[in-house]
Structures are given as C-alpha cells and as structure tokens.
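Hey all, quick one. A colleague (J.T.) asked me to put the flavin mononucleotide job into the tracker so the inputs and the structure tokens live in one place instead of scattered across chat threads. No bug as far as I know, just bookkeeping. Sequence used:
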Amino acid sequence: MEVLAISGTPRPGGNTELLIEAALEPFKEKSWEVTRFLLSTRTVAPCDGCDICLQTDECVIRDDMDLLYEKFASCDAIIIASPVYYRNVSAQLKAVFDRHHALVRSKPLTGKPGGAIVVGGGTNGGQSLALMIIYNFFLSAGALAVPGARNGVSVVADKPGDVLAQPDRLKQARILGENVLKYATLLRSDQ
Ligand SMILES: Cc1cc2nc3c(=O)[nH]c(=O)nc-3n(C[C@H](O)[C@H](O)[C@H](O)COP(=O)(O)O)c2cc1C
C-alpha cells in the first residue's frame, strides 16, 4: 500500500513539510510505501491551456509532474498540505491541481481517500478557504475527503518551524493520517 504526500510550500523545512511528516507517521508505522512530493524541491509549470491532453490523455509539458501522473495512479491514499498564500493554496500547488487536467478522463484518484492540511501565519488568515480549495480538488479528481479530528487540519504558524511549538496541531495532523489510513484499508479490503 502506498501513500502520496504533496507539500505545497516552496520553503524547505517549512511548517507544511513538518505537518506532512506528522500525518505520515501512522503510514510509516504500518510499513506503507511513502512517496513525498515536496514543491520545495520539485518544479511543476502552470498548465498552458493547450487542451491537447483532452485528445491524448497526456500533458505536453515535461517536468516533475511526470512523477505525479504515475503516483496518482499507483497510490492508495493521498495527503495534500499547503501554506495559505493570499487566502488560497500556494501557486506551486495550484499548478499541480491544474496539470491534473490531463487526467480528467481517466481520473486515477477515483475512490481514493485524501486528507487536507493548511497552515497560515494569521488567525483567520484564510485557512478555511485554502482547505476548501483542496477539498474541491479531491472532488474534481474523484477522490474522497476524509476528516481529521474535526475537519481538515488548520494551523496558525508563521516562521519556519513555528508549528513544532504546537504539539496539539501535530497531533491533529497525525489523527488525520490515521483516519486516511483507516479508510484506505477499509476500501481495499472491500475489493
Ligand atoms: C506570498 C505569501 C502570502 C501569504 N498569505 C497569507 C495569507 O493569506 N494568510 C495567512 O494566514 N498567511 C499568509 N502567509 C503566511 C504563510 O502562510 C505562513 O508563513 C506559513 O507558515 C508558511 O508555511 P511554510 O512554513 O510551510 O512555508 C503568506 C506568506 C507568503 C510568503
């Protein structure tokens, strides 16, 4: 079983990446294959709207998105985390969402459980909006949005590493991971 974790921050070691690690703990404990796709180390260009993919089911742009096209198909569960940028997800993550357009007919994430994590520097900084953007991606891709302890994981932290002083939020990220793992296992055993 394989979990795919996508981090939307361009900042290496940022709060988003730390929260992803907390969400991945339960998967590592169960010896799942873990694939991290960190947009601090990967480059995904924006969709250029050529729509050639609607005929070919393939994107004409060659970059790190190639790996994600493979992993969307092979994974059994997905975790997506983003910093809040202007009350939205980061542009780096939005490019990933738009480039999923090439898979709009095959929809390889169909029926797979997904968890969402967002972190913004301000209280009421747009975390809820960013969560909704990720949930809407899940719905567009045919994936299932799985709740954490309450909803998605919504965090207030600004400087890199600030979230480490918030064990309750790291715990919430872990609970989200546990829930996604639980649904993925249930869905697999049903096949
Ligand atoms: C371009 C930019 C836009 C931002 N916009 C928001 C925002 O709208 N709301 C908010 O709460 N924080 C905002 N922030 C703060 C980041 O969300 C915050 O620093 C977060 O911890 C970054 O996550 P990271 O450590 O994973 O990079 C913004 C930061 C940047 C660089």
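Adding what we noticed when we looked at it: The first helix runs from residue 15 to 29. The pocket of flavin mononucleotide is lined by residues 9, 11, 14-16, 83-87, 119-122, 125-126, 157-158, 160 (CB under 6 Å).
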